[in-house]
Protein 1
Amino acid sequence: MTHEPRIIVALDVSSREQALDLARTLRPATDWVKIGLELFTSCGPGIVQEIKELGYNVFLDLKLMDIPNTVKKSVNNCMRMGGDMLTLHLLGGEKMITAALEARAGRDFKAHSSPVLLGVTLLTSLERPDLPWPESRSLHEVVMDLASRAKRWGLDGVVCSGGEAAGIKENAPENFCLVTPGIRSGETTQDQKRTVTPSMAVSSGATHLVIGRPVTASRDPLGSLMHIRRELSANF
Ligand code: C5P
């Protein structure tokens, strides 16, 4: 076994009932789910507590990016909601990331968590033509540059594609989290572009796999998740 990856299921649905149904169904196979913009903007902060009451750790993936003061206050609010893992866009810059780290360091009695803080490098739905920088800068270079800033600024990890995890792992502090969405086992990639299989992601050093539609859009979500777990146990 290289290491035991955590599987985080992205609850990308728009209704509270659907989210709670899925969460109850999947609980035997994972204790991490991700609440992203779709569910959060549909149900509001209350959904975080409801999901946590089912025994889950919550990755609150709001991909914060704003001026440092606004991000600091928002990280405070996410801690009050009990988010166990949060995301910040690395393109927000060092001052914004420092403000987020300060918010965590100064958490008060109203905080229900001390979350893992992750930097988002480049979304796995992006390809080189989507980037605004000169062609001479490869997408890989941009991701590596952003990831090395995340390490320097003191974040706990980054969100990247499975194809980038191995490069980022080099020179990363011990316990640096490599959280990889864009996981596909051969089915349609939908809007994702930089995809890898679960096993490829783990071989490259991913510590957490974020899996959405391959599980949540399946006719048998628990069966699909167990299938991925079996594939990983067979390979590692
Ligand atoms: O359904 P799918 O497996 O593509 O879901 C991937 C999830 O990971 C989505 O919730 C998406 O918001 C998230 N994500 C991503 N790429 C990133 C960061 C997060 O796809 N760079």
Protein 2
Amino acid sequence: MERIVILTGAGVSAESGLGTFRDAGGIWSRYDLAEVATPEGYARNPSLVLDFYNARRRNCRAAAPNAAHKALADLVSERPEDVALVTQNIDDLHERGGAARVIHMHGELLRALCAHCGHRWQWPGDMTMADRCPQCSAAGSVRPDVVWFGEIPYRMEEIGDLLAQATLFVAIGTSGAVYPAAGFVAEARAVGAETVEINLEPSDTAGQFDRHLHGPASEVVPRWVAEVLSSGR
Ligand code: OAD
């Protein structure tokens, strides 16, 4: 039986109406990454950062999972022991598409983190500097539970173990521009896994993949999932 590790990026949620980062008109062409997605930016202007994530949280809540999220959820539920779903996305569209046990390596938009005591909890609405941590009551320390540039992504040890056992690695809708996620394909290749890229166009790391399936995720992912399930791999 294959042991499959799937890595998703913003491209999987693009057809749900959530913007990608580096495509033309993407989030990083409209916002300064250093100001809204780093600990230093948050220290300089916390309200600007909270507003950026408040807007993204509202967009996320208004969006619905697409056929790619649903097909991946089907694959995970058919083969719960053999398939791991790792995402760089902070939206909850994999979960709302039906996937259980999603590994959010860059955190989750709908959760809060107390920068003072480390407590984490669900956060469905807007966030302001007046909000207090329910655990330690600190004020001005509530932030989105997302990983900023300069911070260490979540669950890296677990992901490393999954990649070490992978026989098939699939990257979907990610530009391959951000490490450590962009290095997963090399880790999978090093243990002999087959590597597949599903993307609109060749990514920055396209040369490291054995197979390329180009096109919109909502069309290509369901076809690929059907292929895996029917092949009994
Ligand atoms: P990017 O915006 O860098 O890349 C999205 C990729 O998806 C591009 O290669 C697009 O060609 C592709 N794409 C767009 N629409 C698609 C569609 N409908 N179907 C298939 N592919 C499509 O987004 P990520 O690679 O996810 O991190 O970005 C990685 C990280 O950089 C993010 O998690 C975020 C960002 O800065 C942090 O904020 C820490």
Protein 3
Amino acid sequence: MRVDILTVLPELLKSPFEHSIMKRAQDKGLLEINVHHLRKWAVNEYGQVDDYQYGGGAGMVMMCEPLAKAIEELSGQRKYDEIIYLTPDGETLNQKMANTLSLKENILLICGHYKGIDERIRQHFVSKEISIGDYVLSGGELAAAVLVDTIGRLLPGVLNDETSALFDSFQDNLLAPPVYTRPEDFRGWKVPDILLSGDHKKIEEWRHEQSLQRTKERRPGISG
Ligand code: 6GU
């Protein structure tokens, strides 16, 4: 999968992809991430990409021209399956959306800043709008990093058996069960006996039961 990202803060999008599983995905050639500085398509020599909003009010709006030119230039190089605008008023990201997006070949992400982007870009170029939750970030970059991470780890071949996505929280609409590692007794806090029993069938039943219980308590809205 190839991901192109349009941003005015490319620096924010470096380190999230340079470690661990995202690094491995890229090293294996399964994920290609290209970050593009929107100022490359600025309207003047000062690098302007935003302007005051019509109707008045505080806060700048990202202008049509730099965004349209950037999107058109990038779209000329490849066909995007989705052009996604990261915005708090988009559809809330969940595991099902991540699963669906992980099947795409090319996606373009647009990171908004200030008051957001001119509505006409949303109407004429954007195919999907995504939020990562009901709270406000100062820009779309951290949301884009979250989106790419959640998609990237689902690409076939990225995770191995030990990190398999099959056992993630949400993969079957259930939260993950609790996990423990050595020692068996830490300050008198014991690992549940069942996990030390060696009875794999019983252990699986216990884990499933824990998942159901957690989901019921913490996500009463979703059904397992
Ligand atoms: Cl995608 N962008 C911003 N600026 N804030 C957010 C968000 C996105 N998702 C949740 N909050």
Protein 4
Amino acid sequence: MYNGEYGEGKAEAMEILVSLGKIYEAEKMIPITSAQVSGVSYKTIGDAGLDFVVDLGTKADVMLETMLNPAGVDIDNWEELGFSEEFTSKQIDIINGYESIGVMSTCTCTPYLIGNTPMLNEHVAWSESSAVCYVNSVIGARTNREGGPSALLAAIVGRTPYYGNHIPENRLADIIFNVEYDFSNEAEIGALGYFVGQIVNDKKPYFKLNSNPGRNNLKTLGAALASSGAVSLYHVENVTPEAQYVKNNDSFKELETITVTENDILNTMNSLSSTDKIPDLVCLGCPHASISEIQKVAQLLKGKKLVKDLWICTSNAIKSVAIQCGYAEIIESAGGKLVADTCMVVAPVEELNYEIIGVNSAKAANYVPNMGGLDVVYDTVENLIDMITK
Ligand code: F3S
């Protein structure tokens, strides 16, 4: 490939990845089994990104299962949600560009919920930060925190440089967090992630928790760690697949331990809200909602009417399951919307005349205030739904 036997596009991609590998002193290139590409929303990549993607079609196809990150609009319901035709048409051009080289247009940050689910120790090249954290930590597959372009190039050549999280010794923990608090909801676990991410930045935390938080909460935890810090891998004792390997290593005994108290969690929760007013839009599903999270919202909404807007962001695939299970109907008859392909951060929500957004994700709470001066309310799904129903 490097020498051009498989075409110019693959040679170009390989050349860039080999240069990247040299920068990180990688000893070799290794095969990967899947890729996940960020840099999809027109809001974040703009016209320069659109030109880059349209140009891709003339280069080379991807060689393996490659999924896209959320786009800037819900492709099927953009008009109903209030997005402009101009924005949507540019967004569709971007998605078509990716599709033309074989990328699956499943626009989601939770590809692991819809079939792009590697196995323990598999090497992959993923780029969305919360997905990177989940696939490394909860699944035990191996990826660096790729940029959108490097993940795409890896998908084109089916290989990535062997450095960072691909090397077993680099997956060991750096700091132990002894958490003296019994979590009862997703907002508290998100606050833990946010608190710890600020301390560790890109280091690897090892958590000692009183109980197993479950898959949905681990998704929330990783997203928060990756947004206040740049965490790409964490371990939870007796829960995540590599925790025992990490604990058995001699280096573990030398690690610093930090105790996290109830105060740390509650103070962080408070700091994540910028107002105590009632939100005019509640946005759930950051990272994109799983079917059990949607089921929970449907249960909370049964027989109620919303007095403010509600979006539950998810992938199109999970939305189809929600329709099949009857959850979509319950949510829609209460006045809520299942929003596919996009999310409250990568969609131009600031153009839709909302002022206060309610979220149960620390990652979303971190980003929403930067979007055109919107205020944010951070709370549990139960409390948020309570605030906007009658
Ligand atoms: Fe996903 Fe958007 Fe949150 S991409 S992790 S729902 S900010």
